C-alpha cells in the first residue's frame, strides 16, 4: 500500500546559503529547511492540509489536498539577493573593462564608466527577502 506523502524541498545553491525557512503543517512545526537540511518529508492522512513556510521577513500559506496514495512535492524558490545582484553587475563591469583593453589595446576613461552605470541604480530596497512555492505532482 502506498503512502500519502508531502515533500518540501529547496535547492542546495551556494548563492542562497544563508536562507532559512520554518515549515509548519496544520499549525505544527515540522522542521527547518536550510542549506544543510534541504528536504523535509511528511506522511499525512488523506484530506486538506495547510502548509505554512516562512523566513524572518515573510511567510506563505499553501492549501494542499491529498488523496489516497498521492505524493506532493513543494519546492521553495528563493528570490535573488542584493549581494548576488551586486556581484553579477560587478562581474559584467569588470569583464567589459577587460574586454575593452584587449579590443582597443588601451583603456578609454569614458568607456570604463559605461559598464558601471547600472551599479548606480542597484538599491538594496529593490531586493526583498522573499520566495515562491511551486507544487508538482
How would you describe what is shown here?
- The protein contains three helices and eight strands, in the order βββββββαααβ.
- It is α+β, with helices and mostly antiparallel strands.
- β2 (21-25) and β3 (28-33) form a beta hairpin.
Work out the oligomeric state of the chains in this entry: single chain
Report how far the terminal alpha carbons are from each other: 19 Å
Based on helices, strands and strand pairing, what is the structural class?
alpha+beta
Main sheet strand line-up: 4-1-7-8
Unreliable stretches, pLDDT < 50, 5 or more residues? none
Work out the helicity level.
10-25%
Rounded to the nearest angstrom, the radius of gyration is 22 Å
Task: Report the mean per-residue pLDDT as an integer.
Answer: 84
Helix-strand sequence? EEEEEEEHHHE
Contiguous helical run count: 3
The global form is elongated
Please write out the topology.
Elements: E1 5-10, E2 21-25, E3 28-33, E4 39-43, E5 47-54, E6 59-66, E7 71-78, H1 82-104, H2 109-113, H3 117-121, E8 131-136
Parallel strand pairs: 1-7
Antiparallel strand pairs: 1-4, 2-3, 2-5, 5-6, 7-8
Concise synopsis of the structure shown:
The chain is an alpha+beta fold. Helices cover 24% and strands 38% of the residues.
Give a quick set of tags describing it.
137 residues, alpha+beta, 4-stranded mixed sheet, 4-stranded antiparallel sheet, 3 helices, 38% strand, elongated
Amino acid at each position: 500500500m502506498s503512502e500519502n506523502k508531502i515533500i518540501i524541498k529547496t535547492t542546495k545553491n551556494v548563492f542562497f546559503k544563508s536562507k532559512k525557512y520554518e515549515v509548519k503543517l496544520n499549525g505544527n512545526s515540522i522542521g527547518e529547511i536550510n542549506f544543510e537540511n534541504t528536504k523535509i518529508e511528511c506522511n499525512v492522512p488523506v484530506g486538506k492540509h495547510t502548509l505554512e513556510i516562512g523566513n524572518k521577513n515573510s511567510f506563505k500559506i499553501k492549501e494542499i489536498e491529498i488523496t489516497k496514495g498521492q505524493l506532493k512535492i513543494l519546492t521553495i524558490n528563493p528570490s535573488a539577493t542584493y549581494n548576488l545582484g551586486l556581484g553579477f553587475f560587478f562581474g559584467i563591469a569588470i569583464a567589459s573593462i577587460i574586454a575593452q583593453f584587449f579590443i582597443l589595446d588601451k583603456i578609454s576613461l569614458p568607456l570604463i564608466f559605461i559598464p558601471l552605470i547600472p551599479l548606480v541604480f542597484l538599491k538594496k530596497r529593490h531586493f526583498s527577502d522573499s520566495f515562491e512555492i511551486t507544487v508538482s505532482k
